[in-house]
Amino acid sequence: MSHIAGNNKPLLTRVRRIKGQAEALEKALQDGGDCVAVLQQIAAIRGAVNGLMNQVLADHIREHVGADALTPAQRQQEVEQLLTILQSYLK
Amino acid sequence: MSHIAGNNKPLLTRVRRIKGQAEALEKALQDGGDCVAVLQQIAAIRGAVNGLMNQVLADHIREHVGADALTPAQRQQEVEQLLTILQSYLK
Amino acid sequence: MSHIAGNNKPLLTRVRRIKGQAEALEKALQDGGDCVAVLQQIAAIRGAVNGLMNQVLADHIREHVGADALTPAQRQQEVEQLLTILQSYLK
Amino acid sequence: MSHIAGNNKPLLTRVRRIKGQAEALEKALQDGGDCVAVLQQIAAIRGAVNGLMNQVLADHIREHVGADALTPAQRQQEVEQLLTILQSYLK
User: Fold this and answer.
1) CATH code for position C17
2) Among C17, C48, C84, D47, which residue's Cβ finds the most Cβ atoms within 10 Å?
């Protein structure tokens, strides 16, 4: 079972919070809300998405790149896949 | 009318897209999806939130900090408010 | 006198610190230093550069975009120039 | 030999470029340079530091976390060390 399937409760909690924040932001925009408040809501969503990303990335590194029973070839593939992901995050 | 109220259509489109991405991510997590695909979905949401942020920030700077008919005191208040927002975004 | 000229002492202090950090990093690399220590030195330089950036950006917004005696056309030009700078920083 | 010692030429080239950029920025500040040009120089240094960081991080992941001949305990230690480093970079 992938680490996502085996550990999705805390991740689902995080994603549902982000959904709720997006819904609240949608309402604020519909109501023509104050733009400083809107900018703060966006910063909060951004922080929540970064938190989710760090959690999934940490699980991925522990469960895949750090797995014990990998052949050298499998390990190298996991490492290169991680580096591709990190490049998109560390821009 | 605040620039949010007067220009919320493109902003609402962006927020609804983020909501849709969060819903798709929720489904992927429920299905125990592949974690590299999940990490790529999160990177896409992150990019969409940054895009929304840049759009609202640009509108805010043009409409508030750059407004013509402000007293020096009003202008200074707008500038300090902008600097507070930028500090949370430029960490 | 530009705000850079009138206020360059604190900025020069920051830049000289960054130069010193880069020299220390150069020495660590020549000595074949421990890579975790090298990664932490790089993170410290990154933090120092961000601090310098925030300082100059805040001065720029206060002194240029927030200046009192600007025509509407001059103000608009300052605003658009600021937005161009922010795009390169908020990627 | 650590991957830093064995591969420091390209890293030294990057660090010396950053030193040169810092020296040029120091001169621009001393001359009371144009602040938009100064902001662009800082953005360039920031990009160079990020490039150096990505290079050392990739080497570190390949050579340490992805090394073949590690015991499970050693591998777990390398993984946790990497996660600590990533937390400071992915803020």
Assistant:
1) 1.20.58.1000
2) C48
Q: Please answer yes or no on whether A26 and B32 come within 8 Å at the CB atom.
A: no
For B42-80, the pLDDT digits (tens) are: 999 999 999 999 999 999 999 999 999 899 999 999 999
Question: ipTM value of the model?
Answer: 0.87
Quote the number of domains for chain D. Answer: 1
Sequence-distant (6+) residues with CB within 8 A of A2 are A63, B32, B33, B34, B35
Cβ atoms within 10 Å of C52's Cβ, excluding its own: 25
Residue pLDDT, tens place only, D36-66? 999 999 999 999 999 999 999 999 999 999 9
Mean predicted confidence (pLDDT) in C76-83: 94
Contact B68 C72 (CB under 8 A): yes
Closest residue in C to D4 (Cα) is C32
- Smallest Cα distance from A68 to chain B, Å: 18
Digit-coded pLDDT (tens) for A22-43: 999 999 999 988 889 999 999 9
Q: Which domain holds residue B77?
A: 3-89
Residues of B in contact with C54 (CB under 8 A): 86-87, 90
> Which of C75, C82, C91 shows the shortest C-beta gap to B68?
C75
Query: Taking CA B13 as the corner, what is the angle to CA B9 and CA B14, rounded to the nearest 5 degrees?
Result: 120
Q: Is D82 in Cβ contact with A54 (below 8 Å)?
A: no
Q: Tell me the C-alpha to C-alpha distance, in Å, between residue A39 and each of A44, B60, B80, B84.
A: 9, 9, 15, 11
